[in-house]
Amino acid sequence: MAETGTDLAKAKTLLESGALVAIPTETVYGLAGNALNEKALLAIFETKNRPQFDPLIVHVASLEQARDLVIGFPPAAENLAKEFWPGPLTLLLRKKNIVPDLATSGLDTVGIRCPDHPLTLSLLQKLSFPLAAPSANPFGYVSPTQASHVNDQLGSRIGYILDGGISRVGIESTIVGFTPGDKPVIYRLGGLSVEQVESVAGPATLQVNSSSNPKAPGQLKSHYAPGKPVKMGNLQHLLKEYAGARIGVIAFQHPLKEVDPSFQIILSPQGDMAEAAANLFRALRELDKKPIDTILAEPVPETGLGRAINDRLQRAAADKF
Ligand code: TXA
Ligand code: MG
Fold this sequence. Notes:
By secondary structure, the chain is of the alpha/beta class. Helices cover 31% and strands 18% of the residues. The chain has an eleven-stranded mixed sheet, sandwiched between helices. Strands 12-15-13-14 form a four-stranded parallel sheet, with helices on both faces. Helix 1 packs across helix 6 (118-126). The longest helix has 17 residues, at 273-289. It is globular and about 60 Å long. The model has no long low-confidence stretch (mean pLDDT 95). It binds threonylcarbamoyladenylate and magnesium ion. Residues 25, 27-28, 30, 54-57, 90, 92, 104, 107, 109-111, 115, 133-135, 172-173, 175, 187, 215-218 line the site of threonylcarbamoyladenylate.
């Protein structure tokens, strides 16, 4: 069990000593360490069992702090930051030398975002350095959206969990990079919809699928996956296919009368996409703990955050390798 609480002074002292602290954000909880300290960065990779080719996102208190870490700020990036920070948007920008290569896995760009959570923003404002923070889960598993999720898997490996309640957005940030001509490229669908990105930066290309050498491992075919197999498709068809099997169900709006309600999670009875996104990872984790063998899930409509939800479900359902 990791100590859990809202003691900002304690979190600050630990981080200043090079130790790690789990922090709440509006998207998912992060496993944070001093982004400019190589020892802290190594500890992040080790604690998560994360390969070092997977770069980390650096969290800042403001657009001004982000400027200290990057060479130039393309106009499209600046416009996006001004519109959506603090918020679920990570920008890939050319890094300055003060950002260790370990943070970016040797890439010349660094992923930066300003998270929209009062506790974590206040912590970042008190610190003299930015925080590197991947999602606070073992590599490849479902991201945590509340303190107890972090404790379930990493509790014995970290000193302190800053408890900021349930993550409001519930799905990771949208990652946006830029072409040399300043056009936006979306590398990971996330808590900011494609429509929102395009409303500020113009038409975006999507590069969210990659096989062996992904730019963002969130692009790996199998990622964000619970321990139990996930099958995605039309629920009525899947029910027939899995007749007699021990199944759990993730449905968008409507429960299935054929299935025990305690083995079903409805993402949003009103069909609200933001609510569905906020409930998705909790649903995967809760069903993973039930006495079932397979999780059946239906795709949601491809509007707004629906694309990011379907992306996560597809990766959760992909064969592991
Ligand atoms: O919402 C979020 O982004 C959460 C919270 C904690 O901020 N963080 C998060 O981090 O999801 P993580 O490490 O689980 O996922 C970060 C993704 C990885 O797939 C990584 O490859 C990609 O961001 N990434 C980071 N820096 C990159 C870079 N310079 N170029 C390409 N991809 C990058
Ligand atoms: Mg992650």
